[in-house]
Structure formats: structure tokens, C-alpha cells
Specification:
By secondary structure, the protein is an alpha/beta fold. It contains 21 helices and 16 strands. Strands 1-2-4-5-6-3-7 form a 7-stranded mixed sheet, sandwiched between helices.
């Protein structure tokens, strides 16, 4: 993956002891950039294109207004432009010696670390020297500029900072940046409201102090939203925005300044490259098929106003956690960022996601034998990992079969089994996919094998439902089926230990021989049958289990119900359980949804129904749902044909 030339602005803080006090120095380090590097960056970071265009221009800018975007993005724009202009100077033979010296300087030891001397350090020498440096741009607030030049501090441009008490006391203190006469400086100011003519004139006069400096970057934070804005109508808000534009234009004309408007949104492609860049910076690398989209979504949930610096903190924390756990290797996976779930929506410290093992233990009715098998499989894989670490052989072919009637949670259990293996580091990755057997076949001859191959390259846990649909009619093969099966067997042999493969479908002792399609499929494919290590049999649910499933689904959906209809529901499902088309858990869901529909009809017929009415499913709602389901099944079966002729008694036959 291509890397960005600039991941974040390198803002550095330092304290020096001058004039009898500790003075805070904030500077932006100028990065080493080329036009070619920045051109690649702006292909995905489009908002920085204006500074690229300024750098390409033959006549270089002096005063540059930068507005729009966040403060970090404005600093990024300054860094991009300053880096490109410095590169041009270096190509002309200017400044290279100083950059070489800075590489060994303690102050610049880390490109992304902020260094500072303790401001309370009594050992600081009196009157430390500060010298201009073309690679370190002083960051100066407008309030500091105004106070130092006029004795009056104006943080906002509306004729005095009345919010901060207006005019401040005068001072004789001379800040370090007043000795910056040649190299670049950066001024941070904030636009305000009201009649700006006088304030702009004062600002322009003060900015002319830097006429001899090479570049003067003016970062403008646009007009903030104050409490009095809440009452403004659209017309007044538009008028305020227009006033802000007028102020910027007046400043531009007065200084003969160039401008760079940084508008536009962050893109996922850009965020992906930023995240990957910080991984590389900390000596890490993303696993193959790393879920960038998922991790970026988690970062956004943790901090809606995230920036590149925040992403740096995230990756740095990830690295620190891996070091604490003594995780070997450089490769990071989804689980390395699981700590982000603690920060989603500001719920720091609140557990938001249970493990797959917990879900398997707590969320299922019945399936005791299946759960035991899943946990035993995990123990087997851990056992083999430990054998391998001891120098012993430890391999296990991870191909399994899940059979049972419909609606018995085969695909749900398979997904949790895959999640558990990823969480407990039992397979290299955790990308899960569920496909129907028929989906593996391509549209044309020759397309099927690449399709199957890509499946194994892109996913780690592969659940193939209705595996018998790989065949032409469920049992017989054709050229597409043969191509799919040949490639499938090849991939299973190649990835026998580093992938999880599950074949599933209708089958088992509770399915008639005629409908036992999985058994028929396996009998016609000895290559697959011989590779299956274990078979998970999903039994149909009993009437009592169906009642429990109904209650649990209601609870998970935020509904309550009593037990008045318990025996009626059990009796209904006891009878339905004998039907060939019984849907098991799916029918509990159907009963719940039908009950809710009758509940809705009842509640909406009332005026001002209390909140409790929207939660409590009454017995009458469930009884109506049972009657409707019974009638539906009778109508689906249709009218039974009448028998014609005579029936002989057995003894007369």
C-alpha cells in the first residue's frame, strides 16, 4: 500500500529561560518533502491541493491566508507548503547543512514526539539563546502578537476582547519570536463579528512587522458559534457568513496575500492510508485482509471529531498494549484494537461486546452437545499450538460438517465458532463468510475455479450452506460442479490447517432418508467426506425449548409476556414438530412477530396508551397469533385429495 509523505503536523513545544522567566516556545517542524511526494498525497487528500499549486508557482508567496478545515488541517497545510518551499531552497544549495545538524539534535530526535523542558526546572541557565531556524516555524497567537506590539491583547477581531476583560496590562517582556526577522512565522487568529474595518486595519499594521520574513502563514479559525447565534434566523446567519468573507477579502487585499481554502471532507481512503502510515511508523503492519473499514468505524464512534493526531494516539496505545502482553511479531489484527469498544459513544469502561465463547454459553436454548463440541475443538487447536511451541508436531485439519433440520442455528453457531477462533488466536485471521453452495459456481466455464480460489484468499472462516447445491440438481454433477469441486478440494488441501471450512445442510437421523441431502452429497464426493474431521448434529427443538426460544426472543426485542399461554404454545409446537416442513427456531420468531402485530392493533386502537402498553404482550395477542399460524399451515397444505375406489379389509386381500 502506498504511504503518505505527511501523516500529521509535527508541532513541538519547548521551554527556555529568558528575561528571568520560563518562556514557552511552540514551533512547527518543516518536513522534508518533494513535489512528487505531495502530488501523490493530494490525489487522496484533495483539500491540500491549493498549497501544492502555490508551491509550484514561479513567484513564491509571502503572506498566505489559510482558512477552512480544522486547526490540525491548517497546520498540515502550512507544513506541506513550507516543506515544498524548503525543498526548492535545498535544491539551490541553501539550508542543507542545518537540516543535517538537526537530525542529530535531541530536540528533533523523534518526528512525532513533542519534547519539552520542565518549566519548573530550576537548573535552567539564565537567558538561554534562541536562534532563527528555517526548519522550525514559530507559532504565534494573535493575542500574543497584539499584546507584544501594542500592549493590548485582542484574541478576537471585534474591537477588543470584551469576553476576556478587554485591554490587558502592558508588559515589557519581549517574546522570542520578535527576534525572528528572516525566516517564516505562523500567526493563529480567529475571526469575529461586528464592524471589522478598524480591527482589520490594526491587524494589518501588526502583521507588517514581519515584512522582512520569508513567509508569513496566517491561519484563520472561522467565526465560532456563540450562544447568541441560537436566535439568529437563516438570513442573519447568512449575513454573518458574508461579513466573515468580507473580512478575509479585506485582509487579502491589504497584505497582497495569497490564500488556500481548505474545504472538503475526510475520505475513507485517506483515513486508511493514515492508519496504515502510523502502523508502519510504530514498526507494525496490518494483517492480510485487515478490516480497515471496521476499525475506522470504531475510531469514529470513539471520537466523532477525530483527527490524524488522534489516530496516532490510537496506534501508539495499540503498540503499548501489545508490548505489555509481550505479543510477538509485527502483524496486527482486529483484536489488537478491541480496546476501542470501551470508548464508543463516550461509554468509557463499559463493556459493550461479549466474547463469542460467552455468546455460545448464554444465548442458545438446547444445543448442549454442539456447544461441547465447539469448545472441545478450541481446546484441540490450543493443544496443538502448545505442542508446536515445544517442538512437537501439532496439526489439525479444520474441516467440519453441520447437519440438522432447518432453523436450528447452524449458520449462527458457525459464525460464533469462527469469531471465537479469531478472538482466541486459533487461526491466522477472522474474516467470516457464509455462502450458498450454488454461489461458488461461475456464470461461464472457466470462471468457477478462480472464484473458489479467491474465496480462500480473502476469507479465513468459510461456511458453505446447502453444500449439495454445488451439484447440478443437488446430486448430479455437470462441468461447473466438477470445476468447483476440483478447486475446492485443492484449496482444502492447501489450507487444511490455517482455514476453518464448514459444510452445512439438511441431514441427520431426524431427517427422512429421502430428504437427507447432505448424506447423499457426501456419498457422491468421497474427497470431501474423507477430509471432514467432525460432525456437529443439530437436533430439532422440543416443544419446551420452543417456548423458551419464544421468551428469549421477546426479551431481546424489548418485550415482556407472562406464562398464561405457555401450555398452549407448547402444545402447538409439539404438533408442529411432527410436520416435514417444521422450521424450528424460525417459527418461534414468526410467532413473536405475529403476536406483536396483534399487540400493535390493540394498542393503536386506544388513545394515550401508557408506555407499559408498548412493552407488554398479552395472552390474547399470542392466542390470536397461534390461530393465524395454524390456519396458514392448513391453507399451505391445500385441500387433500379424496380417495376413489374400495378399500379391502386385510383378511380379504
Amino acid at each position: 500500500m502506498a504511504e503518505l509523505a505527511l501523516l500529521k503536523p509535527d508541532k513541538q513545544v519547548k521551554y527556555i529561560y529568558r528575561n528571568g522567566k520560563n518562556e514557552k516556545i511552540e514551533q512547527l517542524r518543516v518536513p522534508d518533502l518533494t513535489l512528487k511526494q505531495v502530488k501523490k498525497d493530494i490525489q487522496i487528500a484533495c483539500k491540500y491541493k491549493p498549497v501544492y499549486e502555490l508551491a509550484k508557482r514561479k513567484q513564491k508567496p509571502h503572506y498566505v491566508l489559510l482558512y477552512g478545515g480544522t486547526k490540525e488541517e491548517r497546520l498540515m497545510a502550512v507544513a506541506y507548503l513550507a516543506g515544498l518551499l524548503m525543498n526548492e531552497r535545498e535544491e539551490e544549495g541553501e539550508g542543507t547543512e542545518m537540516r543535517d545538524e538537526m537530525q542529530d539534535d535531541e530536540y528533533a530526535a523523534s518526528s512525532y514526539a513533542t519534547w519539552s523542558q520542565n518549566p519548573e526546572d530550576d537548573s535552567a541557565e539564565e537567558d538561554e539563546a534562541w536562534e532563527e531556524n528555517p526548519y522550525l516555524i514559530p507559532l504565534i497567537s494573535y493575542g500574543e502578537l497584539s499584546l507584544s506590539l501594542t500592549g493590548r491583547q485582542e484574541d478576537r477581531l471585534f474591537g477588543g476582547s470584551f469576553l476576556l476583560g478587554g485591554e490587558t496590562s502592558k508588559t515589557n517582556f519581549r517574546p522570542y519570536w520578535m527576534d525572528c526577522k528572516t525566516e517564516s512565522v505562523c500567526i493563529e487568529l480567529q475571526m469575529g463579528d461586528g464592524d471589522m474595518s478598524n480591527s482589520i486595519n490594526n491587524l494589518v499594521d501588526q502583521l507588517h512587522y514581519f515584512d522582512t520574513n520569508r513567509q508569513v502563514y496566517i491561519m484563520i479559525e472561522e467565526r465560532p458559534q456563540y450562544f447568541w447565534d441560537l436566535g439568529l434566523d437563516n438570513e442573519n446567519k447568512l449575513e454573518a457568513d458574508e461579513e466573515e468573507k468580507r473580512q478575509i477579502n479585506l485582509l487579502k487585499l491589504s497584505l497582497l496575500a495569497d490564500e488556500a481554502a481548505l474545504y472538503g471532507f475526510r475520505t475513507q481512503e485517506y483515513d486508511k492510508m493514515v492508519l496504515n502510515g502510523f502502523l508502519n511508523y510504530y514498526g507494525l503492519r496490518a494483517a492480510k485482509r485487515f478490516p480497515y473499514e471496521m476499525i475506522l468505524e470504531m475510531i469514529q464512534k470513539a471520537n466523532k471529531n477525530y483527527d490524524n493526531n488522534y489516530m496516532d494516539l490510537i496506534v501508539h496505545y495499540c503498540k503499548a498494549e501489545r508490548d505489555k502482553k509481550e505479543v510477538s511479531g509485527r502483524t496486527v489484527r482486529e483484536r489488537d484494537f478491541s480496546f476501542l469498544k470501551l470508548y464508543e459513544d463516550g461509554k468509557m469502561g463499559e463493556k459493550t461486546r461479549r466474547s463469542a465463547r460467552e455468546c455460545l454459553r448464554e444465548d442458545f436454548i438446547g444445543l448442549d452437545q454442539v456447544r461441547k463440541q465447539v469448545f472441545r475443538l478450541a481446546d484441540t487447536l490450543k493443544f496443538n499450538q502448545m505442542r508446536t511451541s515445544m517442538g512437537l508436531k501439532g496439526e489439525y485439519h479444520n474441516t467440519h460438517l453441520m447437519i440438522g433440520p432447518p432453523g436450528t442455528a447452524k449458520s449462527t453457531v458457525a459464525k460464533l465458532m469462527a469469531q471465537m477462533m479469531e478472538e482466541e488466536d486459533l487461526i491466522p485471521g477472522g474474516r467470516f463468510i457464509s455462502v450458498n453452495g450454488a454461489e461458488l459456481k461461475g456464470a461461464y466455464v472457466g470462471q468457477t475455479a478462480p472464484k473458489v480460489k479467491a474465496l480462500f484468499e480473502e476469507y479465513d472462516c468459510i461456511f458453505i450452506d446447502e453444500a449439495y447445491s454445488l451439484m447440478a440438481d443437488g446430486l448430479n454433477s455437470d462441468s461447473y460442479s466438477n470445476e468447483a469441486m476440483a478447486q475446492l478440494l485443492l484449496e482444502m488441501e492447501k489450507h487444511s490447517t490455517d482455514k476453518l471450512v464448514v459444510f452445512a445442510g439438511y441431514g441427520g437421523k431426524n431427517v427422512s432418508e429421502k430428504d437427507n441431502k447432505m448424506q447423499q452429497f457426501l456419498d457422491t464426493n468421497p474427497g470431501i467426506k474423507s477430509r471432514i474431521n467432525s460432525t456437529f448434529v443439530f437436533e430439532p427443538y422440543s416443544a419446551d425449548e420452543m417456548w423458551q426460544i419464544f421468551l428469549k426472543q421477546a426479551q431481546l426485542s424489548g418485550y415482556e409476556t407472562g406464562e398464561e399461554t405457555k401450555e398452549e404454545v407448547k402444545a402447538y409446537f409439539a404438533e408442529r414438530g411432527n410436520a416435514a416442513d417444521f422450521g424450528n427456531g424460525r417459527e418461534a420468531r414468526v410467532l413473536l412477530e405475529l403476536s406483536i402485530s396483534f399487540m400493535a392493533e390493540r394498542v393503536m386502537a386506544k388513545e394515550n396508551a401508557p408506555k407499559k402498553a408498548f412493552v407488554q404482550i398479552e395472552a390474547g395477542d399470542i392466542r390470536k397469533a397461534l390461530r393465524e399460524m395454524s390456519a396458514a399451515h392448513e391453507n399451505q397444505e391445500g385441500r387433500k385429495a379424496k380417495k376413489i375406489g374400495f378399500v379391502m379389509a386385510r383378511e380379504c386381500a
